[in-house]
Structure formats: C-alpha cells, structure tokens
C-alpha cells in the first residue's frame, strides 16, 4: 500500500506515538501507526477514547507544508466512503464524527506537528463503548445484515479500504479539486439546514465554502466559522 507501517498489539496511543516519531525526526510522509488496542487513546480536547481489541485505531502521518482547514472534510469523506464500501450508510457530523443511524461509529482527530499532519482515526468494528454523550455509539458488525452475510468485518479489511479512500480523496485535495470533496461532504453531512448553537446563540447550519469555512446564518446574516465553536 506504499505506506510505512508500524503495527502494535497495544500501545498507549497511536496519536501520541506518531507525535513522538515526528519529534525524534523519524517520521516520513505516508506513515501509519496501527494498534490493536490502546491503553490511553484520546480524542479532541484529550478526551478518552475507549480502545478495546477488535476495532481500528490508526494514525496517518503526511507531509504538510501548512495547515489546511479543508483537510478535515477530505478525511471525513474518505472514512464515510470506506463505510459505504461495506454497505453501511454513514453521515458526517461536523467537525469530526461519523454517524450511522445517528450513532457514533468513528472519530477523527487532526493535529499538526512540525512539517507533518497527524490524522488519528478510530472506527468501531467489533465493539462500541458506552459513553456519556448526547448520542449513542455503534459498530460495523451491527450492519452485517446490510450485505446479507454472516461473515464479520475484519480490521485489516477495513484498513485496506480506508487507505485506498484516503489516497483517492487526498489526491483530489492535492490537485486543487476541493469542489468535488465539498460536494460529497454536503451529500453526506448531518444537520444541514438545522439549528445549532454558535457562541451561545442559535444559528442555522448552511454549508461549507471552498475555503473550508463552515457557513452559518443568523437573523439574515451569514457567519463564517473556521474553528469548532458550534454545538449540534
């Protein structure tokens, strides 16, 4: 798959390992840190990511000249397309969650370090944690019926498709074709035209623009958001 792969049975965090690799000067473009389980997996704001065996926990390392807000949309589309390949119907919840039937099946964490971007992806395949959140979690094995099969999904099978989709959509971004990424994201997005909270006030979630900004509407005015200050 033309990636340098580091594979572990269990480490504290693939994302932390990737950061340490960059810090030590050992990182190269197109590297994957893969773990069967994590003892200290984390999401945004260093929230705990429960990481039992059977799921996919991976951090992708790519060269990055500069921060690009459009990258997160590209990765979300790649993950969603991966699930679609397994006859699962996902939605993208801005900014970094993938949902199936309104339940979280995947989280994405994008961080920058020196001249690299590190993209952590956790996909529930065999197990899904019970967490205190506004929505439930789910796992891929709950949707085997979609294929009419009794064969369970495997981590390596999912990783293989994910790598293919990451390469496909990242190549669009590298070639300046964010239009197609934006269009696909809009098709898969959850909550468009619905009310959200932005800085404590209600607004309508409209779309993303070609610069990767989220477009909100409030009292007839449009607001561009590049951070993650909204609540859905």
Secondary structure layout:
Blueprint lengths: L3 E8 L2 H10 L7 E8 L17 E8 L7 H15 L4 E4 L3 E4 L2 E11 L2 E8 L31 H20 L3 H11 L6 E4 L2 E8 L5 E5 L2 E5 L4 E2 L1
Parallel strand pairs: 1-2
Antiparallel strand pairs: 2-3, 3-7, 4-5, 5-6, 6-7, 8-9, 8-12, 9-10, 10-11
Helix pairs in contact: 2-3, 2-4
Query: Which bin fits the share of residues in helices?
Result: 10-25%
Biggest sheet features: 7 strands, mixed
Q: How many domain regions?
A: 2
Radius of gyration (CA) equals 17 Å
Q: If classified by CATH, what would the architecture of the largest domain be?
A: 2-Layer Sandwich
Query: Which shape, going by the Cα principal axes?
Result: globular
Element order, helices and strands? Answer: EHEEHEEEEHHEEEEE
How would you write the strand order of the largest sheet? 1-2-3-7-6-5-4
How much of the sequence lies in strands comes to 25-35%
- Distance between the first and last residues' Cα: 37 Å
Tell me the number of strands: 12
What structural category do the secondary elements indicate? alpha+beta
User: What is the CATH first-level class name of the largest domain?
Assistant: Alpha Beta
User: At the third CATH level, what is the topology name of the largest domain?
Assistant: BirA Bifunctional Protein, domain 2
Number of helices: 4
* Poorly predicted regions: none
């Amino acid at each position: 798959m033309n990636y340098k792969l580091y594979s572990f049975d269990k480490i504290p965090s693939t994302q932390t390992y990737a950061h340490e690799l960059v810090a030590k000067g050992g990182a190269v473009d197109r590297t994957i840190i893969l773990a069967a389980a994590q003892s200290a997996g984390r999401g945004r704001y260093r929230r705990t990511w429960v990481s039992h065996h059977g799921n996919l926990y991976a951090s992708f390392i790519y060269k990055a000249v500069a921060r690009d807000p459009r990258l997160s949309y590209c990765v979300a589309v790649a993950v969603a397309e991966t699930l679609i390949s397994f006859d699962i119907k996902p939605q993208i919840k801005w900014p970094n969650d993938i949902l199936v039937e309104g339940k979280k099946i995947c989280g994405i964490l994008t961080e920058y370090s020196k001249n690299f971007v590190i993209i952590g992806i956790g996909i529930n395949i065999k197990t899904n944690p019970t967490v205190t959140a506004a929505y439930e979690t789910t796992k891929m094995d709950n949707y085997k019926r979609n294929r009419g099969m009794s064969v369970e999904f495997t981590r390596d099978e999912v990783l293989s498709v994910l790598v293919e989709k990451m390469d496909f959509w990242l190549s669009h971004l590298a070639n300046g074709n964010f239009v197609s990424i934006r269009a696909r994201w809009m098709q898969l997005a959850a909550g468009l035209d619905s009310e959200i909270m932005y800085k404590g006030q209600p607004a309508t979630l409209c779309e993303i623009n070609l610069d990767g900004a989220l477009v909100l509407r409030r009292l007839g005015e449009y607001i561009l958001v590049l951070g993650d200050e909204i609540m859905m």
